[in-house]
Amino acid sequence: MKKSAIRFAALAVGALAVAGPAAADLPPLEMKERYKVGFPQMESNNPWRIAETKSFEDTAEGCGWDLVTTDAAGSAAKQVADVDSMIAQGIDVLFLPPREEKPLIPAVMRARAAGIPTFLVDRSVDPNVARAGEHYVAFLGSDFVDQGRRVAEWTLANFEGEEGIIIELEGTTGSSPANDRRKGFDDVMAMHDNMTIVASQTGDFSRDLGRQVMETLLQAHPDVNIVYAHNDEMAIGAIQALELAGRKPGEDVLVVSIDGTRDALQAIIDGKMGVTVESSPFFGPLACETMKRYANGEEIEPWVKVEDRIFTIENAADHIDEAY
Ligand code: AHR
Q: Ligand 1 atom closest to Cα of 123?
């Protein structure tokens, strides 16, 4: 991601303008007691999304936010319409988790044209078209490529068979976590001749679709012995499909994934899943802190990176009470 620093003037408090050429294009944010803040959620069909929305709601009062939230119910077009509606309502700041990389770009551009500082949270947009420091202030989120890489490396270190026959359950097509988690994992596996990804298909980050896709792929690839799911919900769906087919997840199939949900930690404790690399949904406090830094005239790095932990049988029980 582009490394240029973002600077702007906090005009209301009389701070000095220190804008570089790109920053001059970014809308300023005045320092004030309360802000009307938009958070257009993409869907609420899994624990991760629900935890993320709750994190924003829990942060609102302490951060002086009058929070406007919407639920696009899994439709990028509805999410675009939700952003447009928030712009019309006169929000001061937009925290946007773009469902997919391309369709939300016009909404980002319209928010900027309307003078609304926009922060992308958890997912990003196509960097060839819209860039931090130019079209939006910054991206707040995890390194999805690294998450996929860490899952692959853990799998290589812990898989006990000779030949890995891998089914990959991908996230939402065209979303940044699906693109990046596939790249991180596949690039590592491509360097190992004994590891073959025999099928890779989307389960749209959904437990139910993950289960259905796994049921179908199992018929074509009954010899599968590793399942890599791009999120925990699909991993749990895959475990259900494997058990229905008489397989023994954790014994004859290694299931590996990303997120760190309560159900995934329980599956690890139960011996049905090997690992989940954390992807935190708790963005509220980070969004508050970053917005205040911006309003205070501080430089904001283009990528405010979230560091992720890794959960295995070694520590899952220690963390399940804090999971969602
Ligand atoms: O963007 C993060 C991903 O989106 C999470 O891994 C997933 O569970 C959610 O729907």
A: 1
Measured from CB, residues less than 6 Å from any atom of ligand 1 are 46, 48-49, 122-123, 177, 205, 231, 233, 258-259, 279
- Averaged pLDDT, 126-133: 96
Tell me the C-alpha distance between 113 and 225, whole Å: 51
Which residue has the least CA distance to atom 6 on ligand 1? 231
Q: pTM, whole model, 2 decimals?
A: 0.92
Best probe residue, ligand 1, of 261, 279, 308 (max atoms within 8 Å of C-beta): 279
Residue 231 in contact with residue 258, Cβ under 8 Å?
yes
Q: What is the pLDDT of residues 57-92, one digit of tens each?
A: 999 999 999 999 999 999 999 999 999 999 999 999
Q: Is the pLDDT of residue 9 over 70?
A: no
